[in-house]
Amino acid sequence: MLHLAEALGFSGRKVVAALAAVPFPVVHGHSLLDTLRTQQQAMPWKLLSSGGEQQVSRCFAQSVVLRGICKEKPSSCPGKRPHSALQACETEEEILQRYLQTLFPGAFSTSHVLEQPCPTLPPYPQFFSSLLTKQGLLLDKPLDSTSTAVESIPVVSALQSSPVLHTVLHGLYKELRALDVRRWASFFSAGVEEEDFREALQELRALAECYKTHFEADESEDETDSD
């Protein structure tokens, strides 16, 4: 994961945010193409990293993995034009990659689609909705059967280098700057010099600025260097 984070980092960026959808909402009998078309302008994942809200179409680089999607043969319709760029794709990998390029224009994106789902057999907690099949696919109505244990689920996960990390890192910087480290003698008795701490603090602030875009609030511009 460290090497992957380094591969997604450039222009001084060293940190990535984690996102996931557990499970990835696929309707029973529908393809990946159908599922992504219903998502329109948003992926159904949630930001796992605390401290900010992810914004659609704002990402520098990302790596996305989708598990539990059956790969289907493309339907051939000679002479018929595809209604969208997604329909023109030949494989699930191409569909996901094209969708990410549309959702995050200008971002560097890598994607992988795996057929093997994420297993959810015991001791995995059964906190799933009754609308899920044993394979983790969505139904229109709950199953009548009393045995509704979900055995596997489709999952999408991602690591992103995105502007949301400006909020996360700058918030951490402000919290650390507010501390009076001179009151913590045990901290420096461990071998850390106050000057080293101040230098690390400024490096953290500079790292946060690497994720700032013109969409971000100018919350850091009014900060003074009194610390």
Automatic annotation (TrEMBL):
Name the record gives this protein: MSTO1 protein
GO cellular component: mitochondrion
Taxonomic source organism: Nothocercus nigrocapillus
Coiled coil feature spans: none
InterPro entries from the UniProt entry: DML1/Misato
GO biological process: mitochondrion organization
Record PANTHER family: MITOCHONDRIAL DISTRIBUTION REGULATOR MISATO (PTHR13391), PROTEIN MISATO HOMOLOG 1 (PTHR13391:SF0)
